[in-house]
Amino acid sequence: MISLAATxxxxxxxxxxxxxxxxxxxxxxxxxxxxxxLAQALAEVGVPEAQRRMRLQQIWHWLYVRGAQDFDAMxxxxxxLRATLAQRFTLARPPIAAEQISVDGTxxxxxxxxxxxxxxxxxxxxxxxxxxxxxxxxISSQVGCTLNCSFCHTGxxxxxxxxxxxxxxxxxxxxxDRLGDWAPTSESTRMPAPSDFPLAxxxxxxxxxxxxxxxxxxxxxxxxxxxxxxxxxIADGEGLSISKRRITLSTSGVVPNITRAGAEIGSMLAVSxxxxxxxxxxxxxxxxxxxxxxxxxxxxRNYPGLSNARRITFEYVMLKGVNDSLGDAKALVRLxxxxxxxxxxxxxxxxxxxxxxxxxxxxxxxxSEVVFAAGYAxxxxxxxxxxxxxACGQLKSASEKLSARERLALRAMAMTD
Length: 417
Ligand code: SAH
Ligand code: SF4
Known about the structure:
Blueprint: E1 14-18, H1 35-44, H2 49-66, H3 79-88, E2 96-102, E3 107-113, E4 122-130, E5 135-138, E6 142-143, E7 161-162, H4 165-179, E8 211-214, H5 224-235, E9 247-251, H6 255-264, E10 268-272, H7 278-284, H8 293-301, E11 312-318, H9 326-335, E12 341-347, H10 361-373, H11 404-414
Parallel strand pairs: 5-8, 8-9, 9-10, 10-11, 11-12
Antiparallel strand pairs: 1-2, 2-3, 3-4, 4-5, 6-7
Helix pairs in contact: 1-2, 4-5, 6-8, 9-10
């Protein structure tokens, strides 16, 4: 376990430590594999069909409940099977190039994934944001992004590649490793009983990583199959067990895939709205030219299972003099009328070379009052002055340190329920 003893000075909020040196994987890892892929792997090493279901169940438990790092730990499997698996596969996690720990407990990991050349891995960031009633992990779905929202640093990078389902789910495994967030291993041969864990509200197990938001790098709905399969691993009730109600996928508005996501994934949805007119949204989120606001909101209205207890989160980045007038605030609440919605106002997190500035705090407050008066709780109302906050977006660009602004933005984004 990493100590939380970060030193706070006027400039350094964050303890940084470089970790593993990257070496390209020589053998495939089982970590993050969806059930069907794992079943195939077992078939390949000669596990007879009649045993496959049971073996898969056992391995699943070791991987995703116990967090096993070594085949020898899998004591419910025969020694022979453990040896056979170890010849062909590993339990390696994607290496962490750097870890930052903030005084408020926020952690940011730079995770390495295989690139085209063995010596040049890709990097994505993953951020853990602890709060009193939950711990939210912000994960990535692509290296880079094909869309180019004008206020987003990821949009300036050309897409490098989609993450696989295993790489998506492995981010949760990495976080549980670093946080020591696995089931106790003392009675390692039996399945855990509910009494093994202190209960949180609703009878769920209390885990450090209780929620996942797909708000790191990339557009998840342009990598829909891998995102679907990765989310199914994360949500699997016999494994990582983070229910789909606690998983939020954020999209810039890929309308046809919102409908597919509703039917095929069933997680919570966040939509990056950011503007109330097509004219402005065309500039901020160029995908709007293809799928304008009216079509986007229609897809949102039709998203399955919406109710007051199950709402769509609308993200709205606060850009000074661009989209932050009180007229915009009023138009925003009018626009969302009739949709079970939450509104997350995200302070803009600046990056070098951007043409935008974050709205003044007073303006954000006034904007949020309009939103609040219309019946929406707005998470940016509370944070000011608190030792502060954490947020997603922007991750890789600001990897030097977690700035107060970045943490504020991250925290606002993480408040999806
Ligand atoms: N591609 C998806 C998810 C990743 S971006 C999407 O666009 O929704 C996650 C959120 O971060 C989005 O709402 C995005 O608009 C926001 N974001 C991007 N750059 C930002 C910045 N510089 N400051 C604040 N929020 C930002
Ligand atoms: Fe891509 Fe989302 Fe950034 Fe737009 S905001 S460029 S969709 S990551």
